[in-house]
Amino acid sequence: MLAWDWQIPSIYGGFVNPPGAVRGQKKTMTYKLIELFFNLLGLIPRQWGNRLGSLLGRILYIADIRHRNIAVQNLSCAFGKPPSQVKDISVKVFENMGKILFEMAWSARQNKKQLFRHFRIEGVSHIKNAYHRGRGVLVLSAHFGNWELLSIIAAMIAYPLSIVFRPLDFKPMDRFICAFRTRFGGTLIPKRKSMRHVLRTLGQGDMAVLLMDQNVNWEEGVFADFFGHTACTNKGLALLALKTESPVVPVFLLREQKGFRAIFLPEVTLIKTGDKTKDVEANTQEYNRIIEFMVSQYPDQWFWVHQRWKTKPFQPWPRKR
User: Fold this and answer.
1) pTM of the entire structure?
2) Do the domain assignments include residue 53?
3) Which domain range does residue 142 map to?
4) Bridge partners, residue 165, by sequence
C-alpha cells in the first residue's frame, strides 16, 4: 500500500493516513462537531435511518430546485419516459442520497463483525481470480447505491485497497470523510496527479478503485456514448489498463431491503490494437457501457443530480458561405 508521511485523527480515536489535511493539524472545533453529529446520528438503527433518510430526501427534492431540475432533465434524456415516471425516479434518487447520510453514521459505530452481517458479495470469484494474477487490480465503480461503504467490501475480501478520490473543499468534512473511508485500512489517492500513485499500488499487486461516472473537462477525458448521448469520460482507467495490463473488474454496491449486495462483474476484456488513441476511446466506451447496464437496472440508485453531459464535444466555428 502507499505510505503517507503524516496522519490525521480517525472517527475511532486512532490514526489513519489519508491525504487532504495540513501536516500535524489538530482537530478543529468544526471537525469535532461533525464527528459528534455523526456519532449521535449513528445511534439510530439502520431501519429507522432508512425511513428518516427517505424523508430527508423528499425534503431535499422539494427544497433543492437546481439539483431536482438536473435530475429530471438527465432522466428524461436517458430514458425518454413520461414526466410522471421521471418524477417518481427523481424522488427515489433524492431518497437514496438521504439514506446515505444515515447509513454512514450507522456504519461508523459498527465493528467489522457487526457490519459484515449486513453485506453479501456476488461474483467474488471474479475479483479473486484477477487479484491472484499478481498484476494488481483496477476496480471500475460508480456513484451507485451507497458507494461510501465500498471499503467494507474490501475488508470482507481482505485485499489491500486504494481509492482515487477528489478532496472536498470544506476541509473539516474532508478530514472526516477521509477517516471514514480508511477506517478499515484503505488508502486514499488524491485524483490530481494520481497516476504515479496508482501505478505504485498496482506494482505492489494491490487494488485501486476508480469511480468513472462523472463529467470531466475535455483535456482529462475522451467522449464516449452514455445513454445515447456523448459524455466526456475520464480516460485515466483506460490509460492505466493499457500501460499495465492489470485486469479491470467492475463492482457496484447495491442497497437492498435487508442490507447491501456487492456485485462483482466479470473482468473487462482489454482492447489493445496498438493504436493508443482508438484503444483509449474503445476501452472507455466499454466502461461506460457497463455502468449504463447497472444504472438501467437500478436507476433510482445512481447519482442523477450530477451534470454528466456538461462538457460538450469541440465544434469548429462555422465558415461563412
Assistant:
1) 0.88
2) no
3) 112-160+205-310
4) 190
Asked whether residue 303 is domain-assigned, the answer is: yes
- Convert the pLDDT of each residue in 292-314 to its tens digit: 999 999 999 999 999 999 999 87
> In whole angstroms, what is the distance from residue 223 CA to residue 166 CA?
21
- Would 150 be classed as within a structural domain? yes
How much is the pLDDT for 192?
86
State the DSSP string of 173-225: HHHHHHHHHTTTS-EEEESTT-HHHHHHHHHTT-EEEEE--SB--TTTEEEEE
Q: What's the total number of domains in the chain?
A: 1
Beta pairing class for 248-256 and 137-141: parallel
CB 305 within 8 A of CB 280: no
Residues of the chain with pLDDT under 50: 1-10, 12-24
Does residue 30 belong to any structural domain of this protein? no
Cβ neighbours for 274, distance < 8 A, ≥ 6 positions apart: none
Burial class (CB in 10 A: 0-12, 13-18, 19+), 184: middle
